[in-house]
Amino acid sequence: MTGRIDIHHHALSADIIELMRERGLPTPGQQWHLNNTLDMMDANRIEASVISNVIPCDVLGDATQAHRLVRQVNEAAAEVVHTHPNRFGFFAVLPLPHVDLALAEAAHALDELGAEGVALLPHGGHHYLGAPLFDPLFAELNQRQAVVLVHPLDLPQGSAPGVPSVFADYLLDTTRAAINLITSGTLVRYPHVSIILSHAGGFLPYAATRIEVAAGALANVDHTTVWDSIRRFYYDLALSVPSALPSLLAAADPSRILYGTDWSGVPASVVEHATRALDETAVLDDPTRRAINRGNALGLLPRLARRLSTTPTTTTTVR
Fold it and tell me: Which site among 86, 97, 161, 252 is 20 to 30 Å from 60 CA-CA?
């Protein structure tokens, strides 16, 4: 009962991919299948994975259609959790930029479906998280002391020719949202929202000193607020180990770093390589490594922690 907790896991099944395709949305190259997912989890000593299926609702012209799609996506994820409560949790996707519908879906997912939290894209249309448009949503999430996973997709203006979005634009998308959450005062106004930044926070840890130096002149934010905010964020390690670890450890609170795989967006070989690198890196001591693998996530996600404490599993202990 002491395996890893994967905080960054995508579960787009064939049915969900077909729903996306019917609406003209971009679809992933790799479908999610339960059996090979469980094989991958067991091979890497992952006790439980938290599903997040982000949908770019801003490209759908019809708000009702967007809400209907995310409801189907969230209910599919909830069914996986219901069937395998000791192996999965989920973050519910919300139909941004449609704030009223996002509020309704958050209530349904958190109150009725038992979601661990919600998943947000860094932007809805051309509005990044931290924009006044999203204040009602953050006020509600703050009231609920909710967990938010911020997961990037394409930049609003699209990618540069010859540079696939996944190489750099995804990281910039997350970084823009994090900076706007800091400079807009959103983190100060809503202190009870716990925000996870995907992929080790994008470029945020690497650029932390640069942001600190410039924030006073460009955004009227003092350096203490910048650093407090950077250390307030949680960070998952999906597609970031080992190269991003030194910058992340220099900027982040180690108790807020979380294991993540980016499955099923990456093959099992990538998960295995990154997991081995995390286990073998010399930049972490063993207590910090154990916390990243498991303890930090369980402290953040009480619903999942309760399920794992009451439901037996055969997952091997991780160090």
Answer: 161
- Tens digit of pLDDT for each residue in 76-134? 999 999 999 999 999 999 999 999 999 999 999 999 999 999 999 999 989 999 999 99
Instruction: Quickly tell me which residue has 């073998």 as its tokens.
Output: 280
Q: What is the pTM of this model?
A: 0.96
| Closest listed residue to residue 170, CA positions, set 197, 149, 152 | 152
Give DSSP secondary structure letters for 257-273: EE----BTTS-HHHHHH
Residue 77: per-residue pLDDT:
98
